[in-house]
Amino acid sequence: MLRVLVVDDSPVMRRMLTKSLEMAELPIQTIYEAGDGQTALDVLANNWIDLVLCDINMPQMNGVELMEHISRSAAMGLVPVIMVTTETSEPRLDYLKKLGVRACLAKPFRPEALGETVRQILHLESEA
Amino acid sequence: MMTPSPELLADTAAPILAECAFLCTTPARGKQDWATSVSIASLRFSGPRSGRIEVCAAFDLLKSLAADMLGIDPSDSDASRHADAALAEITNVVTGRLVANLFGTSSTWQLSLPEVSHGPVPPLGERAISQTLVDPDLRPIRVTLYLGKAA
Question: Residues A30-52, buried b or exposed e (16+ Cβ, 10 A)?
Fold first, then answer.
């Protein structure tokens, strides 16, 4: 059962991601939410997280800065991160992949695409 | 890379409204009947060129937008509570796609956080490129691009 951290400054997007995870019929135990990178770091420091879904453009600490922090931590660096973002700049996406981001999903996304991406990253079996 | 035009704004925004919120829109014709007060989301970008995107719509449309994005009924209080947040997120997604359409993906650009204000529909500035879309109930949503000089 998965514990997922959803990081996005938009409460609407956090709800959409949560609903999409449910619609994708993934084995979700708990969904944590954070509205910025700093809050996400606090959640990661205090909870076991199996997967992070993260936006880039956020206040206080954006998604790139969050990923830089995660990549410097031996423990946090093991948590798979999927960026869910409007960002399509190839230099920035390449940089994020070098930091260890496992996948980038463009907004707007279909719940099926989110589900497939999560299953691939976490090596989960697909729904029949 | 594409040329900024009202058609490009329509071609960028309409699919996003459809994909994010199942909101089918078409380019508006003629003068629109705007509410006295609308929500206005503004987002700045900088990179190969700088500029600003502004998206405005009335509360009634935004409540429907929020309801569709959240998968709830428009009468649900969350739809009203998140109407501005829905507009901000749509503006964010439209801007991200628009800058990619305008400048390509080999550059890097910065987007500000969207800011939402309320008031009458803002007049269009001198260098505005604008397109109003309407939903099946003829409720308008206007997307405006202000583009600065090349860096």
Answer: ebbbbbbbbbbbebbeeeebbbb
Interface subset of A 24-43, CB within 8 angstroms of B? none
> What torsion do the CA atoms of B112, A90, A55, A125 make, to the nearest 10 degrees?
170
- Closest to B41 in 3D by CA, of B96, B95, B91: B91
Token digits of residue A120: 């691939």
Rg (CA), chain A: 13
Residue indicated by tokens 């509570």? B81
Give the number of beta-carbon pairs within 8 Å between A and B. Answer: 61
Angstrom distance (rounded) from CA A31 to CA A33: 7
Pairing of strands A103-106, A81-85: parallel
Q: E strands within B25-139?
A: 26-27, 38-46, 49-57, 110-111, 115-119, 128-134
- Say yes or no: A107 contacts chain B, CB-CB below 8 A: yes
Q: Which of B27, B39, B20, B8 is nearest to B103 (CA)?
A: B8
pLDDT in tens, chain A (128 residues): 999 999 999 999 999 999 999 999 999 999 999 999 999 999 999 999 999 999 999 999 999 999 999 999 999 999 999 999 998 899 999 999 999 999 999 999 988 999 999 999 999 866 54
Q: ipTM of this predicted complex?
A: 0.88
Q: What's at B140, amino acid-wise?
A: P
Say if B109 is an interface residue toward chain A (CB within 8 Å): yes
A54 DSSP assignment: E
Put simply, whether A65 touches B (Cβ < 8 Å) is no
Distance of CA A25 to the CA centre of its chain: 17
